[in-house]
Design a protein that fits this description.
Order of helices and strands: HHHHEE
Structural class: mainly alpha
Number of helices: 4
Largest sheet: 2 strands, antiparallel
Distance between the termini: 15 Å
Number of strands: 2
Strand order of the largest sheet: 1-2
Length: 111
């Protein structure tokens, strides 16, 4: 998933609840779907950021040797400016880009 190219807003947006529950007919089910997708996106983002920042890891235990690396700061700022995982997941749900299924129901939804 390329969350860097998403068209999700970077700030909170007021949404119509009826738009969120139009496919599931249940707002709580919709919120649960969005929450699970948000957790997936968050873990992907965290893993990717950790891989990039491990290169800058300081393996010494002394505080005197701490220094600021400009490239590390730029990477961190970039990830801070990305939309939050909840906003990305909500945008994906509204745009019907999430596949979900409810085992208690017979039909699958490909969104």
């Amino acid at each position: 998933m390329d969350f860097k190219k998403t068209n999700a807003p970077t700030t909170t947006v007021t949404r119509n609840l009826m738009d969120l529950c139009r496919d599931t007919s249940n707002i709580y089910e919709s919120v649960a779907i969005i929450a699970k997708r948000s957790n997936q996106i968050n873990s992907e983002m965290k893993e990717e950021l950790s891989k990039k920042l491990v290169e800058f890891g300081n393996h010494s235990d002394t505080l005197e040797e701490m220094f600021e690396n400009e490239e590390q700061i730029q990477i961190s700022r970039y990830y801070e400016r990305l939309p939050k995982p909840t906003l990305i997941a909500t945008q994906e749900f509204v745009e019907d880009k999430i596949f979900y299924r409810n085992p208690s129901k017979e039909t699958d939804r490909n969104i």
